[in-house]
Design brief:
The chain is an alpha/beta fold. It folds into two domains: about 220 residues, 3-Layer(aba) Sandwich (Aspartate Aminotransferase, domain 2); about 130 residues, Aspartate Aminotransferase, domain 1. Helix content is about 35%, strand content about 15%. The strands form three sheets. Strands 1-7-6-5-4-2-3 form a seven-stranded mixed sheet, sandwiched between helices. Helix 7 links the parallel strand 4 and strand 5. Helix 3 runs parallel beside helix 10, helix 4 crosses helix 9 and helix 11 packs parallel to helix 14. The longest helix has 20 residues. The protein is globular, with a radius of gyration of 22 Å. The model has no long low-confidence stretch (mean pLDDT about 95). Bound molecules: pyridoxal-5'-phosphate. The site of pyridoxal-5'-phosphate (PLP) has 13 residues, from helix 4.
Amino acid sequence: MEQEFSVETLLQHLGEQEPFPYGSVTPPIVQASLFAARSLRERTARGGLNEAGYVYTRHSNPTVRLAEQKLAALEGTEDALCFGSGMAAIASAILSFATHGAHVICVQTVYPPTQMLLESWLPRYGVQASFVSGECPEEFEQALLPNTRIIYLESPSSLYFRLQDLCAVSALARERGILTMCDNSWATPLFQNPHALGVDIVLHSASKYLGGHSDLLAGVVAGRKEHIEQVAQTRELLGGILDPFGAWLLLRGLRTLPVRMERAHRSGLQVAEWLAAQPQIAKVNHPGLPSHPQHALARRQMRGFSSLFSFETHPIREEQAYTFAERLRLFRFGCSWGGYESLLLGWTQTPPDAHGKASWLFRIYIGLENPDDLIADLHGAIEALTPS
Ligand SMILES: Cc1ncc(COP(=O)(O)O)c(C=O)c1O
């Protein structure tokens, strides 16, 4: 079925050729911890699995499996696994391949808890990490050590939305037998398929766009069967599988992913272009804008752009940043993204100067509201950011 239909059609039909019980159009939530076999003899012959191929939900579950089939088809990988959060997926993937004595090269602007895992937590188990900006493939080459086992990518990366050349980096890793992993949460499988560009393992926080409704915590690991089997063993031992209801919410979110992403692409660019034209804004970090230093690469390796980006101010007083935020009526202030609601967060980028002024970085997420309303809201508040 994979080759026959487009992604939008596969999302609705893959794994659903047989009607669900009672003709239900939504899949059942198989809320079971245990799957028993009818015969002890058969169970033993099947290596502990029952007649349907299940044993215990920490190992696998039919509702979770349906989500995994759809995600593998979306990412164009042989298989995929769902986890209880993006961090459970990321940690399990890294732990599956980073053995004692291994070295990992990672991108500096990676999602901060991933950086913390590599920098502060894994050294306890004899795994070391180096960090590079990732903006040119040579940096990875220069950071290589004889014991480098993993190159960890996140493109575009968190906060500054910098890219890595996925083709070039995965080619240099492949030549040396190094595994590549890429967090693809920002672009989603609709706008970027790292595996098709040579990356071995694709990771997602499905708590973002894939779930899409700010009501789910989930993660995904996708890749070749041999790698997925190894990660499945880690998942079973660490117990990080997604629960059946979470998988059902993920399946529901995936149904509307193409329409939500089309909207995210358009609305994100519209607001980014408007912000880039405002005198109060020093810089907008959005890979879809021609002003982004890696715009050409972005167009080469992505088919679209999502609606999370950041903008930087000229030096301002702290009070101005808070006044700007307080004047907004349609944005909420929170750390996740990928749902229906627009969000804003802000930080100083530099220590305050002698006049108490600093440049601020705002991360903005454009939700499903009408972008004209969001621009009007920003218009009503942006005066507060005027340098004085
Ligand atoms: C890029 C990126 N990757 C991974 C994660 C972690 O995902 P989760 O919160 O589902 O554990 C996040 C969460 O914000 C993220 O932004």
